[in-house]
Write a structure and sequence with these properties.
By secondary structure, this protein is an alpha+beta fold. The chain is built from 12 helices and 10 strands. It has 2 domains: about 170 residues, no CATH class; about 160 residues, Nucleotide cyclase, GGDEF domain (Alpha-Beta Plaits, 2-Layer Sandwich), CATH 3.30.70. The N terminus is likely disordered.
Length: about 350
């Protein structure tokens, strides 16, 4: 959200004479299921968990450490710790795994909550009639909050089902511990984005990133891939089929070229063993794809040897060898320029 929009929302709230601190207290009560009334020791005792464990979970979620005697917690916090205990009873006994899960939740939902908060403030700035009273604002929160919660739950269930289906397809339905799978990894970023940020306004940059992420989401999804994450102006995706990865990358570059509002893109693709953990991907295949993107020219797709070999007999593509280059972690990285046949 831009500074202008923040100021607009604040001005609209002040114009109605709302007591902002009192309003935030009421909003917090709605979101947290009641007032803050428990200390950290109270919560640990109520959840029947050691205090050092609850302290570690709180830090893993990304929240600031609080004193043992500060009344900072609600019934919702006690309930959440009860769910953690039940998870452990179901088989998640490894404290390190539970901590990793908490870190992932904290990182994921911190970003999601920031986006949702911005969206809500933008909506209130555009609808000053909703800021007439504390009651009208609370009514919006009470209606919107559960709807967002239901949609998040729905998306999580669909994504979990899709993940299990992918694993079953790779392993032939045999249940095994997750191991490194052979995947095609792609990085795509916007050329000249750093210089562009010096010229564009905050609103223009936000619209540009939204346009890029929407384009990537549509094309990667249609190609049978999955977006692992977005990192500023860069998208990281994975797909099982090397040819599908090539098609996705080429379509992304072609779509950006046809869109006058987007700068040219560049991409790097690699194929090989990939370790998946907590929704992210790791290994030399990922690193090679990233390095290829860093040396690719604007409007070009570079692929590594493994992906080149996988596409060598595919009549839809042609590849031209480029001289090997030394990049961080790889002394002689041999890229090929990928084009349509």
């Amino acid at each position: 959200m831009s500074v202008d929009e923040q100021q607009s929302a604040a001005a609209a709230a002040q114009a109605t004479g709302l007591d902002i601190p009192a309003l935030l207290d009421r909003v917090e009560d709605v979101l947290l299921g009641g007032p803050r009334k428990f200390t950290a020791n109270d919560v640990a005792a109520a959840a029947d968990l050691p205090r050092d464990k609850t302290r570690a979970l709180w830090r893993a979620l990304g929240f600031a450490t609080v004193g043992d005697d500060s009344a900072m917690f609600t019934d919702c916090d006690v309930e959440a710790l009860g769910w953690v205990r039940e998870l452990q009873e179901c088989g998640f006994e490894d404290d390190a795994l539970v901590a990793a899960m908490a870190r992932l939740f904290g990182q994921t939902f911190s970003r999601l909550a920031s986006w949702q908060g911005q969206l809500l403030i933008e909506m209130l700035a555009q609808r000053p009639d909703l800021l007439e009273s504390e009651g009208s604002v609370i009514e919006v929160i009470e209606r919107v909050g559960p709807l967002l919660e239901h949609l998040q739950n729905y998306a999580w269930r669909r994504q979990l089902a899709a993940y299990l289906a992918r694993v079953a397809a790779r392993t032939g339905g045999v249940v095994t511990e997750p191991t490194a799978a052979r995947l095609a990894i792609g990085f795509v970023d916007m050329s000249g984005f750093t210089s562009l940020t010096r010229k564009a306004t905050e609103a223009q940059l936000r619209d540009l990133l939204e346009r890029f992420e929407t384009l990537a989401n549509d094309i990667v999804g249609e190609g049978g891939g999955r977006i692992v994450k977005t990192i500023g102006d860069e998208v990281l995706f994975q797909v099982d089929d090397p040819a599908a990865a090539a098609e996705i990358a080429l379509q992304l570059l072609e779509a950006a070229e046809a869109d006058p509002q987007l700068p040219a893109l560049r991409a790097g693709l690699a194929y090989g063993p990939v370790v998946s953990r907590l929704g992210d991907v790791y290994g030399s295949t990922v690193n090679i794809a990233s390095r290829l993107t860093s040396i690719a020219r604007s409007g070009a797709v570079l692929v590594d040897r493994e992906l080149h070999d996988a596409l060598a007999d595919d009549p839809r593509f042609r590849m031209k060898s480029r001289r090997p280059e030394s990049v961080r972690g790889f002394q002689h990285l041999h890229p090929w320029r990928l084009r349509r046949a």
